[in-house]
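Reopening this one. Same input as before:
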Amino acid sequence: MVAIPSIIIAGPLLSRFYTKWKLTPPKELFNTREFTQEELPSLASSLITALSPIILMLSGAIILMAVPADSSNGKLLKFISDPTFALFFAVCIGIYLLGIRKKRTMPDLMKSLTAAASGIAMILLIIASGGSFKQVLIDSGTADYIKVITSGLHMSPLLLTWCVAALIRFSVGSATVACITAAGLTLPLIGGTGVSPELMVISTGAGSLMFSHFNDTGFWMFKEYFNTSIKQTFAVWTVMETVIGTIGLVGVLILSHFI
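Same output, byte for byte:
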């Protein structure tokens, strides 16, 4: 009930304000090319390449529930199911199934990998810089400081948890940190006030989407992939996230009169 109006307003309605913009995504990321039938991989090869990291990570997480993490098998499974290794393994499978098996030479494959890496390198550096900035704020205790400041506020639990999550998101840039910190602070209020736990969850999630800017990796991903300026990124990404968070709060406050 809260998500539907958020999707409509922050999606089709909000996008009407940007119809006059002419944006061209980076050429390195979107190359149009016609492939012959012989060049195309089979359905099985495509699925195996795309799903192999998911299968590795998922199977590792499930098996580790039954295998002790300190054991040799547990450490091996943890290493194999690590996202970095799983993605590397998928690249290796792709090189074989989509390259060597299709009779492509190794020098040709190396040229393809080099071109792919050069096209994405700058985007990865910018996104990593945003993530580093976020981590500095987290390690400096910004979220804990905001938690101390807001602990003395007297207001509706729904509004309080939204404000805490929104402040932490603005300061730290991580929606996950904002959710966890706000939930830890306002959890005791549920028992004392009788507020709906479900509405508290929605309020926390809505607040964690507010005010995305330079310290949010999503901000930089949007900017680089859609080739927008900083001003345009604020006008689209930040406004969209803030609209979703605000509508979420309004929806929660309305529902609180009935639930």
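So the earlier flakiness isn't reproducible anymore. For the record, The chain has two domains: 3-25+138-255, 43-104.
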